[in-house]
Design goal:
The complex is a heterodimer of chains A (421) and B (231).
Chain A (H helix, E strand, L loop, with lengths): L1 H32 L2 H11 L3 H34 L4 E6 L7 E2 L2 H6 L4 E7 L4 E3 L5 E7 L1 H7 L3 E2 L2 H9 L3 E5 H7 L6 E6 L10 E12 L8 E5 H7 L7 E2 L1 E6 L5 H11 L7 E5 H43 L2 H9 L4 H38 L10 H28 L2 H7 L1
Helix pairs in contact in A: 1-2, 1-3, 1-12, 2-12, 3-10, 3-12, 10-13, 11-14, 12-13
Chain B lengths: L3 E14 L2 E14 L3 E5 L6 H8 L7 E6 L2 E2 L5 H11 E4 L11 H6 L9 H14 L15 H13 L5 E5 L7 H17 L3 E5 L3 H5 L3 E6 L2 E7 L3
Parallel strand pairs in B: 3-8, 3-9, 6-7, 7-8
Antiparallel strand pairs in B: 1-2, 1-4, 4-5, 9-10
Helix pairs in contact in B: 4-5, 5-6
Classes of the chains: A alpha+beta (421), B alpha/beta (231).
Bound molecules: adenosine-5'-diphosphate and magnesium ion.
Adenosine-5'-diphosphate binds next to strand 2 and helix 1 of chain B.
């Protein structure tokens, strides 16, 4: 019985793939059809070997599907580093960022020359209802946080409501969507790390604001709530401590000096600090994920180019097989350039339509996968710039694949070609 | 307008392979009047195809001049020559050289793509040409679905569809059995007589050559004799 299901499943997969490749193949056929008799000449030669054309379009599609996914992955792995402001420093405990710092450091850091603004954040280990519903919850000083991260945009009236409500919180749109939170909802947020003075592990708060990173370049999955409220719920011994400070410097060129000055301020104190640029911090973090990402990227890129090479060869082969026909066309009065256009048009059409189908499929997959992966890859989308690069690659590929056969078609000496046949 | 359609004057064709020089046509002169039907005969390798290609403008001479319908075609650029071919000559090949993926009418329609005709006009014209060669019931057949004789008649239809003055046939019956060959020759004779097409036909079949108005013998790059056919 299970064999039957396995076979049925296999058939379904084959049918799906056939359909997916069939669509661009059909589009190519339609486009050529609309070009009248000339298009029909190309169509006829293209579909002489239907399987070959089908597989060629399929490989190009697959290559560009990978290209699309690769772009999104590359973006996902480097986004943190790119997003990190050059003008932002991160001050943490000298030994490890798990150890906490006194909240009193805030005012002292603010006095350092070259510091424009400063805020603090703490790792809360938050989740919603069940531990598997992990949420990046951060007790913070709301006003300075959104001053320092202007790219996290909140509608003004929501921002005011958030400031006015001590038990209010702000959530990224992605996390709000994921759990179906509406502005005004009371949401119980729980912590894996902290306990309230009364022994509870739940902070019930009101969603007052939903922030959205500008141009989607930012983490839309965090939750920020008032540290003042958080602090007063904690047992006395756990109060007045924060995870790390985010420092905005006046002049990014001066960042290194400011970082040094901050660490000097707390040198030889019981709690020493280590300050680095947010970018360096993000890069250090990204490196751990990024190394895996780089390997994946390299493998996919190698496969991408190999596939294009093999496909280019197949396309060239299919033109070479028609040398005699091209010679006949010239005999009938088609010019060298005219015949060359037949060859170019065919290759370009296959490359561009197949490629667009591949990138389109990547786009759809990213939308579908993006929601599932949001937790691990907060930034996961197909960058517009890469789509343009992809389109350029398609044209480039079409030209390269047809360059040799096209020059051969251009130079083809009719008399010799006919004699050879 | 001069009397002769094709005027070949001291034409040479020399192939160089390294230091070796192979003189295929040696200062050859030939004049073909309008409405003529010439059979070009000669042993294999004597330069018949080369000469035909030169007249049709798909090859270039190394010396001499070629005038076809008052046009010095050896001086034309590649592009101009291509345009000239599309209007003035029709080629018929031994191996038919049809595009195997296209139907008979699509094959015949091909040369018309270079004219200003719209699709309907082209289709009509192609069907007329096919009817003229007796293939009115084979419009949508592909070459593989036709007999050799029928394929060659499609080839002839394609050659005449643009109504050129001259037909150049390179061993048009070379690949056909006697009966199909005769039908093709009947067709060429009819085109020559009723449509006034000037025809130059390469053949090494004496029976085929007999159907022409005159026979030209080519040997070692020179014309060896010109004889009036018995018919
Ligand atoms: N491209 C070429 N390079 C060298 N020799 C050639 C070339 N084309 C034809 N020839 C030679 O020219 C001679 C005449 O060829 P062709 O005109 O085809 O003869 P025919 O049609 O009379 O059999 C042959 O000896 C052939 O080998
Ligand atoms: Mg020959």
């Amino acid at each position: 019985m299970s064999v039957v299901y396995a076979l049925l499943g296999l058939l379904a997969v084959i049918a799906l793939i056939t359909l997916l490749i069939g669509i661009p193949v059909f589009v190519i056929w339609l486009i050529l059809k609309s070009f009248g008799a000339r298009g029909e000449v190309i169509n006829a030669s293209l579909f002489r070997k239907k399987t070959r054309t089908f597989l060629t379009v399929g490989s190009i599609m697959l290559a560009f599907l990978m290209f699309g996914l690769l772009s999104a992955l590359g973006k996902a792995f480097t986004a943190g580093v790119d997003l990190a402001g050059q003008d932002r420093l991160l001050t943490r405990h000298k030994v490890t960022w798990i150890q906490l710092l006194p909240v009193s450091y805030l005012n002292r850091i603010a006095t350092v020359d070259g510091v424009a603004d400063v805020t603090h954040q703490t790792w809360f280990g938050g989740y919603y209802k069940e531990p598997r519903n992990f949420v990046a919850v951060i007790p913070s000083d709301i006003e300075s946080t959104f001053r320092i991260y202007p790219e996290l945009e909140i509608p003004p009236e929501q921002y005011e409501a958030l400031i006015a409500d001590r038990t209010g919180f702000a959530a990224g749109y992605a996390v709000a969507e994921k759990y179906g939170w509406q502005v005004g909802d009371r949401v119980p947020i729980r912590s894996e790390i902290y306990r309230r003075a009364d022994g509870g592990d739940t902070w019930e708060m009101t969603l007052q604001a939903i922030y959205r990173p500008r141009d989607d370049l930012g983490d839309p999955t965090s939750v920020f709530f008032h540290n003042d409220f958080f602090n007063e719920t904690l047992p006395e011994g756990a109060q007045d401590q924060v995870g790390w400070y985010i420092v905005k410097v006046e002049d990014p060129d001066n960042a290194a000096a400011v970082a040094e000055a901050i660490d000097e301020l707390f040198a030889n104190s019981p709690v020493e600090t280590k300050t680095e640029t947010e970018k360096a911090f993000a890069a250090g973090f990204a490196n751990q994920v990024g190394n895996v990402g780089k390997i994946v990227t390299a493998v996919i890129a190698a496969v991408f180019f190999t596939m294009l090479l093999v496909t280019a060869n197949t396309m060239g082969q299919s033109v070479r097989e028609r040398t005699n026909e091209l010679a006949v066309l010239k005999t009938l009065g088609f010019t060298n350039t005219g015949v060359t256009w037949f060859v170019l048009a065919e290759a370009l059409l296959i490359a561009v339509v197949g490629g667009l189908a591949g990138i389109g499929l990547a786009y759809l997959s990213i939308i579908v996968l993006g929601d599932q992966l949001r937790q691990y890859l907060p930034v996961f989308f197909l960058p517009g710039r890469d789509v343009l690069i992809g389109i350029a690659l398609m044209f480039g590929f079409g030209l390269v694949a047809s360059a040799l056969p096209a020059t051969q078609a251009l130079r083809l000496q009719v008399a010799d070609a006919l004699r050879r046949a | 307008m001069s009397e002769s359609l094709v005027e070949i004057n001291a034409v040479s064709k020399i192939y160089k392979r390294g230091a070796e020089r192979l003189t295929v046509l040696d200062k050859l002169s030939l004049s073909v009047p309008r409405g003529d039907f010439v059979a070009l005969m000669g042993p294999s390798g004597s330069g018949k195809t080369t000469l035909l290609n030169l007249i049709g403008g798909i090859d270039r001479p190394d010396g001499g001049s070629i005038v076809v319908s008052d046009r010095r075609i050896d001086k034309l650029s590649d592009r101009a020559l291509a345009h000239w071919r599309s209007r003035h000559v029709g080629f018929v090949f031994q191996m038919f050289n049809l595009l195997p993926v296209l139907t008979a009418e699509r094959n015949v329609e091909l040369p018309l793509l270079l004219t200003g005709m719209n699709g309907r006009q082209r289709r009509e014209r192609a069907r007329t040409a096919l009817s003229l060669v007796g293939l009115q019931d084979r419009f949508t057949h592909k070459p593989a679905q036709l007999s050799g004789g029928q394929e060659q008649r499609v080839g002839i239809a394609r050659a005449i569809v643009t109504d050129p003055e001259i037909l150049l046939c390179d061993e048009p019956t070379g690949d056909l059995d006697r009966q199909s060959g005769d039908e093709v020759l009947d067709l060429l004779v009819a085109l020559n007589e009723s449509q006034g097409k000037t025809i130059i036909m390469v053949t090494h079949d004496p029976v085929a050559a007999e159907r022409a108005k005159r026979i030209v013998h080519l040997d070692k790059g020179r014309l060896s004799s010109v004889s009036e056919a018995a018919a």
